[in-house]
Fold each of these.
Amino acid sequence: MVKHVVGVADSKVSSDCGDVIVTQALGSCLGITIYDPVAHVGGMLHVMMPVSSINRDEARLNPLMFVDTGVPVFFWDIYSAGGVKNRLIVKVAGGATIQHNGQDNFAIGKRNMVMLRKLLWKNGVLIEAEDVGADYARSMRLHIATGRVVISTNGCEKEL
């Protein structure tokens, strides 16, 4: 088994059945997995902000930082690796409410999910499973051999 770690504003795609792709500390960020069960191609994206319009220069340097620019790049990477749109399984975790002094003034987690839902809906893609919201961080693992996605929170694990 080879473990690939996805950092913030980063993604990994694999077709090697021995690979596991992981990301950690999903607070308001979203971890998005895509898996094609026929081609055994999958990947994970760790995106942090909803829209690239807040910093166009940063979006040009790293489109994976933003939902609106990162998700399309990520889907094209999956297609390039052999994934087929009508077979793709999408799962999402994160989007937590991160409060400072009891307030969530920017609602980044909620806004990330709204932007993702709009983008996927516009392109005819549905989310099969999600673990989003609340006020705690999550870690996420994708097993390429099976497409299994495991979420870890406060020492507990569950499958999405």
Amino acid sequence: MGAFRNILLIDDDEDDQEIFLAALRHVSASVSVIAERNAGVALDKLAARLLAPDLIFLDLNMPGMNGQQFLSAIKKGIELKDIPVIIYSTSSQSSMIIHTKEMGAAGYITKPDTVDDLIEILSTYL
């Protein structure tokens, strides 16, 4: 991966967002993060160029548009398909990991139990 400056986190769980943001602050002070709770809204904002992330972290299990639907939609869009998407999910099923990578995900993180574990994982991506 490269030097990412603008990150979009799409996750409907506020606690998970807070943990992610806290871990990210430890990894890099120079990164800007926008968190969206709704994948459909995030997709609309991306399409309208209201968001311009270098990297997207995407939860899979969300109401409305889920992570797989978002990933499928973003990889079909000419302007959006090159944005790397890292799946950030509680699911650790190997079939889901393989499937999302086949769909175009650049990586897959199973949500860890501690902030320290997440800091370690994020530091490998940033």
Amino acid sequence: MKSKAINEKPKTFAIVFEKGDEVLEGLKRFAREEQLGASQFTAIGAFSEVLLGFFNFEKRDYKRIPVNEQVEVLSLIGDVALEDGDPKIHAHVVLGKSDGTACGGHLLEAFVRPTLELILTESPKHLQRVMDDETGLALIELGQDN
């Protein structure tokens, strides 16, 4: 993974993932290194294998959906927010298969092949994720001091 700052205000980065990189771990490591507390991102590229999730409200857990084939990343969007002081990545993706069909969901894991081009923009204030008892998910809390 390589990155370059491309704008000062708002702080914006171009991040290019390389073949074999795991996206969420790489992005989390980048957010820690750059001390990002609130950011949004978009990306396009391709994956060799992906684990999608679909949230089952009754079970309060994700149904895991493996996609074990080469796919185009038609759209990857998400955000970075802090949970207990550590960056947490929340991302959704739409994937294009070789037959022209699409699938998508919550991104749980993805391995790049051959590249993923991501643009990340930092927000001026940090966002916090707080555990929601009803869903079992860490959701962004918009408090008065955020």
